[in-house]
Design goal:
The complex is a heterodimer of chains A (116) and B (115). Chain A is built from no helices and eleven strands. Chain A has 116 residues and is mainly beta. The chains are: A mainly beta (116), B mainly beta (115).
Chain lengths: 116, 115
């Protein structure tokens, strides 16, 4: 049973460019969350997708957008890249259930984005 | 607002020493969940434990133990007889009924275990 997978592993972009990061959730999971982890910091929640819609959003500008596909995989898009967007981007998947107020998140290995 | 504070930025110990990582949290939710994750140099967050707000029993798993105290809003993590393989960054995290699915992480504690 494959866990959460992310691609690419590493990425180098220049300021002003756009980037797309991809995530495939763990088998059986229908919810995907994205986090940004700057160097030396804890992960920060960007947004969460469920049923192909953004369900929650953290304190990130509109340059950060996402998408969820019918197969539950997800993309994170960042436009007009800034130097400060350099970070490890983590994807987490979970199952949304009405029986539980919390559903555990399983994290992928991350995509390390460097903006020059 | 929810917040997690890990006051210890870095801890260095010698192998076989016991070490405790501190975590203090803030939340107004009556139902909430606390977590500890380990992040080795590879970057992937490895889940260690989850505790819900209604279960204050301490837990032990091998060399790991956790002390959850609602009275002091703390959820501390102790590694007994530390090993070099325990070297990593450890994160405490919180989610509550008001924003289920959004994990709030602390800044992390870097643990270095020297041989």
């Amino acid at each position: 049973d494959a866990g959460v997978t992310q691609s690419p592993t590493h990425l180098i972009k220049t300021r002003g460019q756009q980037v797309t990061l991809r995530c495939s959730p763990k088998s059986g999971h229908d919810t995907v969350s994205w986090y940004q982890q700057a160097l030396g910091q804890g992960p920060q929640f960007i947004f969460q997708y469920y049923e192909e819609e953004e369900r929650q959003r953290g304190n990130f500008p509109d340059r950060f957008s996402g998408h969820q596909f019918p197969n539950y995989s997800s993309e994170l898009n960042v436009n007009a890249l800034l130097l400060g967007d350099s970070a490890l981007y983590l994807c987490a998947s979970s199952v949304t259930s009405t029986r539980s107020s919390y559903n555990e998140q399983f994290f992928g290995p991350g995509t390390r984005l460097t903006v020059l | 607002a929810q917040k997690v504070t890990q006051a210890q930025t870095e801890i260095s110990v010698v192998e076989k020493e016991d070490v405790t990582l501190d975590c203090v949290y803030e939340t107004r939710d009556t139902t909430y969940y606390l977590f500890w994750y380990k992040q080795p140099p590879s970057g992937e967050l490895v889940f260690l434990i989850r505790r819900n707000s209604f279960d204050e029993q301490n837990e032990i798993s091998g060399r790991y133990s956790w002390n959850f105290q609602k009275s002091t809003s703390s959820f501390n993590f102790t590694i007994t007889a530390s090993q070099v393989v325990d070297s990593a960054v450890y994160f405490c995290a919180l989610t509550g009924s008001s924003n289920t699915g959004k994990l709030i992480f602390g800044q992390g504690t870097t643990l270095q275990v020297k041989p």
